[in-house]
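sry for the spam today, last one i promise. C-alpha cells for design, 519 residues
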C-alpha cells in the first residue's frame, strides 16, 4: 500500500454533483488514514447544509429526464459501466486496500460481488414488465406498471466501500432513479472513483452523485423532501435511527443492521472442512463484515478436536500490509498477507478491549492476536486473529457485535441446544451448519430464525438475483437488498384501468350510477 512520501500534502476528496467534483463550502474536513502505516494520506470534505442541498438538488433536477429515458438506453449505460469496472478493477482494489486496509485479493473479491449486481441490473427490463388484462369488465382493460421513485439516498459503511453501494445503486439507476451516495468518511475515495466511472460510461450528469460527510450529511438525506427512499447498511443502533427518522419524514426505508453469526458444527461433520471454513469466515477481511462468523458452536463430543484444528490453522495466518505494492516490496516469492489491519486505531483498540474482557470473564484464550508481529508499518492498526474457547452466552465477547478478528467457541451438548442458542440471539442475519447428514441440514433450515442460512457454506451471501438481508434486529423495514426485492424497493406500482367506447355501440343515456355491467 504505497501512499506517498511522509511530507506529501494529503489529497482532498470532495463531493460529486452534476457530473463534476464539487468543493462547496465544507463544514470541516476529516482525515483519511492508511491503516497499514497509520499515516494520514487524504482528507475528506464534511458537507455543510448548503453542500448537501446542492448535491440533492442536482439529483432532483436529473430525476425526470432519467426516469423517462428508455429502458434500452438505460441498459446500454449499465453494460458500459460493467465493462469499464471489470477492466479497471485493479485501480479500485488499490484504492480500497489503501483506505480500508483489506488485502488486495479481498478487495478484488468485493468488487466481483458488486459486479454481480451490476450484471443483474443489466437485465432489469424483464423485471420491470407489468401485467395486462383485457376485458376485465365489459369494454374495460387493466394494466400495471412499475415506475421509478425519483431521488434515492444510499448510506454505506466503511467495511465494503464498493460492494455495499453496488448492492443498491445499479438497480436504482437501472429502474430510472437518481442517486445520492453518502459513503463512510473513513474510506471515501472509492465512491468518487465510481462516480467518475459512471460519467465515462455515459450516465447523464446528476444521475449519480456523492455526498461526503458525517451525521449532518446523513440527516440531510433523511429529512430532505426531495429524497424518496433510503438504503442503509451499518450497526443496528444507527439503523434504528435511520429507519425511524426517514420513516417519520415519509420515506421508504431499507436499513440493514448488525449481526452475530453462528456456525454450528455437528458431530458427523467433516472437521477439516469445518475448521477451514471457520478460519476463512472468522478472520477474512479482518472480521470487519456483517456476515463474518463470530461464534463457532461445537456440538459434543467434537469440541476439543475442532478447537485444535481451528487453532492450528489460525496460527499460520500472515497479518500485514496486503496491498499489491506492499506484497511486491516484500520480495520475490513473498505471499500476500492473509489479513490486513483494522480500519482505524480507535476501532483496533475497541476490538482489543473485547479480548481483554473475554479473558477477564473466564474465556480461554487459545490464540492471542494482541501481540501480533505484522508485516507492515509499526504504526499500523494491527491486531492478529484471536480464538477463544469455553465462551458462555453471558459474556460480552459473545453478546456484542465485535466487528473484528475474534472467533468465540461455545460448546453445547446437543443439536437442540445449538438451535436454541442461535434463535435466542437478538440478531438474525446469517448462520451456517456443517454436517454430512442431509436430514439434519433440512431440519436446521426449518428450525432457525435467521434470514440467510449456509449448509457447509460459512458465509451464505446470496447471489445477486436472490435478495440479501436478515431477520430480527438485523433488518429494519421489510425489504432486503438486491434481487427481486431490490427491484420492488426502487420502484412503485401503478394500475391503469381504461375504457374506450366504440361509437357503434355507444349505450343510450349518459348517466350510469351503478357498478359496471359484466355482459
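last one done:
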Amino acid at each position: 500500500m504505497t501512499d506517498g512520501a511522509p511530507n506529501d500534502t494529503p489529497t482532498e476528496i470532495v463531493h460529486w454533483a452534476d457530473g463534476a467534483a464539487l468543493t462547496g463550502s465544507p463544514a470541516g474536513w476529516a482525515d483519511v488514514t492508511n491503516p497499514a502505516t497509520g499515516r494520514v494520506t487524504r482528507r475528506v470534505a464534511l458537507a455543510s447544509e448548503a453542500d448537501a442541498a446542492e448535491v440533492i438538488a442536482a439529483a432532483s433536477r436529473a430525476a425526470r429526464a432519467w426516469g423517462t429515458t428508455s429502458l434500452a438506453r438505460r441498459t446500454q449505460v449499465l453494460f458500459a459501466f460493467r465493462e469499464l469496472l471489470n477492466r479497471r478493477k485493479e485501480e479500485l482494489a488499490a484504492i480500497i486496500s489503501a483506505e480500508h486496509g483489506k488485502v488486495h485479493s479481498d478487495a478484488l473479491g468485493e468488487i466481483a460481488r458488486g459486479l454481480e449486481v451490476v450484471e443483474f441490473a443489466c437485465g432489469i427490463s424483464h423485471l420491470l414488465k407489468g401485467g395486462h388484462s383485457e376485458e376485465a369488465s365489459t369494454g374495460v382493460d387493466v394494466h400495471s406498471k412499475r415506475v421509478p421513485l425519483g431521488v434515492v439516498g444510499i448510506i454505506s459503511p466503511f467495511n465494503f466501500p464498493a460492494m455495499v453501494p453496488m448492492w443498491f445503486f445499479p438497480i436504482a439507476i437501472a429502474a430510472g432513479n437518481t442517486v445520492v451516495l453518502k459513503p463512510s468518511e473513513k474510506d471515501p475515495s472509492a465512491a468518487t472513483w465510481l462516480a467518475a466511472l459512471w460519467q465515462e460510461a455515459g450516465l447523464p450528469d446528476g444521475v449519480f452523485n456523492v455526498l461526503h460527510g458525517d451525521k449532518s450529511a446523513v440527516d440531510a438525506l433523511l429529512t430532505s423532501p426531495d429524497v424518496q427512499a433510503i438504503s442503509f447498511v451499518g450497526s443496528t443502533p444507527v439503523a434504528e435511527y435511520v429507519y425511524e427518522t426517514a420513516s417519520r419524514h415519509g420515506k421508504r426505508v431499507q436499513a440493514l443492521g448488525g449481526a452475530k453469526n453462528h456456525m454450528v458444527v455437528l458431530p458427523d461433520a467433516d472437521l477439516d472442512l469445518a475448521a477451514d471454513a471457520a478460519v476463512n469466515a472468522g478472520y477474512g477481511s479482518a472480521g470487519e463484515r456483517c456476515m463474518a462468523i463470530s461464534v463457532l458452536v461445537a456440538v459434543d463430543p467434537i469440541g476439543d478436536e475442532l478447537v485444535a484444528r481451528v487453532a492450528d490453522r489460525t496460527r499460520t495466518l500472515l497479518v500485514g500490509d496486503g496491498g499489491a505494492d506492499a506484497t511486491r516490496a516484500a520480495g520475490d516469492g513473498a505471499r500476500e498477507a492473509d489479513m490486513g489491519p483494522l480500519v482505524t486505531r480507535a476501532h483496533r483498540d475497541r476490538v482489543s478491549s473485547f479480548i481483554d474482557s473475554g479473558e477477564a470473564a473466564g474465556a480461554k484464550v487459545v490464540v492471542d492476536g494482541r501481540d501480533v508481529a505484522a508485516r507492515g508499518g509499526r504504526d499500523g492498526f494491527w491486531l492478529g486473529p484471536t480464538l477463544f474457547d469455553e465462551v458462555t452466552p453471558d459474556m460480552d465477547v459473545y453478546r456484542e457485535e465485535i466487528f473484528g478478528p475474534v472467533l468465540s467457541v461455545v460448546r453445547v451438548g446437543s443439536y437442540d441446544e445449538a438451535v436454541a442458542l442461535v434463535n435466542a440471539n437478538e440478531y438474525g442475519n446469517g448462520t451456517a451448519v456443517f454436517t454430512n447428514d442431509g436430514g439434519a441440514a433440512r431440519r436446521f433450515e426449518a428450525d432457525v430464525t435467521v434470514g440467510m442460512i449456509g449448509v457447509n457454506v460459512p458465509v451464505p451471501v446470496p447471489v445477486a438475483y436472490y435478495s440479501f438481508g436478515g431477520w430480527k434486529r438485523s433488518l429494519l423495514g421489510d425489504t432486503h437488498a438486491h434481487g427481486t426485492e431490490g427491484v420492488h424497493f426502487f420502484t412503485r406500482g401503478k394500475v391503469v384501468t381504461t375504457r374506450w367506447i366504440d361509437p357503434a355501440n355507444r349505450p343510450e343515456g349518459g348517466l350510469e350510477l351503478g357498478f359496471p355491467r359484466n355482459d
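Residues 1-7 have pLDDT under 50 and may be disordered. ok im logging off now
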